[in-house]
From TrEMBL:
Residues 149-207 form the FYVE-type domain. The keyword Metal-binding applies. The keyword Coiled coil applies. GO terms for cellular component: cytoplasm. This is FYVE-type domain-containing protein. Keywords: Coiled coil, Metal-binding, Zinc, Zinc-finger. It comes from Rotaria socialis. SMART domains: FYVE.
Amino acid sequence: MITRLQDFPRSVYYKPRIRIEQTNQQIHGLVSTNESLNRALAKSDNDKTSLETDLNVEKEFQQRLQKALQNEKDKVLTLQIDIHELNSMKQEYDAYKKEMTKKQNDFEKKFNDQDETIEELALKLEVYIKREHESREKDGIRASGWMKDEDVKECCQCKKEFGALRRKHHCRQCGLIFCEACVSTKLTLSGTNKPVRVCDACCKNVLAQCAVNGP
């Protein structure tokens, strides 16, 4: 009986203490759990923020892709329009080329038809010029029958226009006016005591007469 009375206060003393320790352990466990939950929640928030950032980046990337795709579609449409216009231009060019080829063939045909006529006219003109020079030579045209400088604007042979660098020169045989290049030959004519300028046609005629008549 005495032992039980002695043990009673001790049991009463230790039980609350054990409960307090157990409660403290439970509180400590709850605190640890709470901290773990807080860390997990913080990590979850960080993951959520990271996911939201990645999602925004993905959305921006998709928007850029859609914009680039639309730009490519616009380029394709523009190229299709350009191809259509080029095809139309090619058709017009082919038609124009065909027409020009036909005109060229017609022109060549007309040119070939008139070629002989032109050659005949050239021969007639050459004969006429030769006869004209012979006639002038027979008539004894000299300085008194020369062309007036103010009446002539171009060389009677090469048809080049006179100017400051291209001066006028008379042929002492026929009296026509030539440039220096076309009247560069000098011969001693009847009635002259030194070589004078003569045109090419007169030079040929004078030399031909000398060959016939002798020196």
